[in-house]
Hints:
Blueprint: H1 6-9, H2 11-33, H3 49-57, H4 64-84, H5 91-117, H6 123-146, H7 152-171, H8 182-199, H9 205-251
Amino acid sequence: MTGVPASAAGGSSGAHGARGSAAAADGARSEVSGSAPGPDSGGKAPRGGKIAAAAVNQASVWNVANLLTMLRLVLVPGFVALMLANGGYDPAWRSLAWAAFAIAMITDLFDGHLARTYNLVTDFGKIADPIADKAIMGAALICLSALGDLPWWVTAVILGRELGITLLRFLVIRYGVIPASRGGKLKTLTQGVAVGMYVLALTGWLATLRFWVMAVAVVLTVVTGLDYVRQAIVLRRRGIAERAAALEEKEA
Length: 252
């Protein structure tokens, strides 16, 4: 017995042990957060750190926003069945079809907002949301035209515009993203109201009113579509010019 306290005798090894524990903790934190390891970890990033970070940051597919999107997809065949039930002209069945269409339109207003507000954006949502939007609208327009309630050229204009703008967005995505405009949002709202009114078996002045609402929707569809084309052309030219300038600067 030397009378030296155990903590003093083991001071050196205790310090190394403390540093080792700190390094281990720092490495564990960096593996979860994806950040760089601490100074005591030897400067080497832990293997799988980025994968772990992605797993932590990626929102679950089974979140409320995606569930609303899935609900819209499920409503599409149900809406078509209700719309065409009993020959497609029964007011009761048409009212049920309108209810399904209204639910789909309302959920469309909320799922994107929820995903952005609560960081619930997922790859599934990015793909499924626009598909669900166009599926329910396309199903309604095609059913209305097939039943003779809506001219086929109206359906062709609206669906052609939607598919064309979607394709245009993919073509210019290398240069940037075309943002949704106020006109585009107003177009979507007007289309939903107009189609919903046509789904219902309306008569009298309400039938006249829905004609004019649909006329406004068609005009907004064409005008906003042309505006998106203009934005795409400007975006492409700007992107090409910026790439050319960057290439010249690099060569200089």
